[in-house]
């Protein structure tokens, strides 16, 4: 059995633990091929980018739907709870989904989420019947507040969006996993290499969401496949039981007596 076959996201069984973003690809055809190569069954879509300028659909929705992936609209670019809630309702009406990736930016330099506005928006959207996927930091108390607001899924960052730095604070992420065992945890943002995705999955996270590392690669399709394999490998490693680190050498083969009788 594939290590991803036990993955149920918001009540939906999935075969893949890879969630893929759709921004910044060199062409629609490359996006189509990357989604297929990744194996991702959930694909994010930024409504502010989608309707920017013309106020109309630029074709990305059809590409995603044709791939068979489930749409996860996001509120990227929102700066307040009110703005995010309004955009979420627009997404539900236009795309016929109650799933929403909730983003509320609090700092323009790091694009760090605003914990207060985020929690306010999450609480309102849960009341309004949404399945909320909040993009948050790795702070345990902030995460707990989101859970208290009714979120069953959290998406803590590994590092600032698009930075490619990987998991800057594995201790904090490990703490989230230990303290919130019943919550679906998806590492989102900062992933730059397949090895970073492996590390996230080895920590026991349920899935990985990324965009820039695939979209901006020299070969996005090849990179999408690489990440799909990395996520599978990391999950299987976690399930199989990782070797505990040791401070000193430990012989893998006991040594004693003669190697064979003469």
Folded structure, characterized:
Helix content is 40%, strand content 16%. The strands form two sheets. An eight-stranded parallel sheet has the order 5-4-3-10-9-8-7-6. A two-stranded antiparallel ribbon has the order 1-2. The radius of gyration is 20 Å and the shape is globular. It is built from ten helices and ten strands. The protein has a single domain, classed as Aldolase class I (TIM Barrel), CATH 3.20.20. The chain is α/β, with parallel strands linked by helices. The model has no long low-confidence stretch (mean pLDDT 91).
Secondary structure: elements and pairs:
Elements: E1 7-9, E2 12-14, E3 18-20, H1 28-38, E4 42-46, H2 47-50, H3 60-67, E5 70-74, H4 81-95, E6 99-102, H5 115-127, E7 131-136, H6 140-148, E8 153-156, H7 170-179, E9 184-188, H8 194-202, E10 207-210, H9 212-215, H10 220-240
Parallel strand pairs: 3-4, 3-10, 4-5, 6-7, 7-8, 8-9, 9-10
Antiparallel strand pairs: 1-2
What are the defining features of this structure?
alpha/beta, TIM Barrel, 262 residues, eight-stranded parallel sheet, two-stranded antiparallel sheet, 10 strands
H/E element order: EEEHEHHEHEHEHEHEHEHH
Number of domains: 1
The backbone outline, from C-alpha atoms, is: globular
Largest sheet: 8 strands, parallel
* Secondary-structure-derived class: alpha/beta
CATH-derived architecture: Alpha-Beta Barrel
Beta-strand content estimate? 15-25%
What is the CATH topology assignment? TIM Barrel
User: Rg, please?
Assistant: 20 Å
Name the average pLDDT: 91
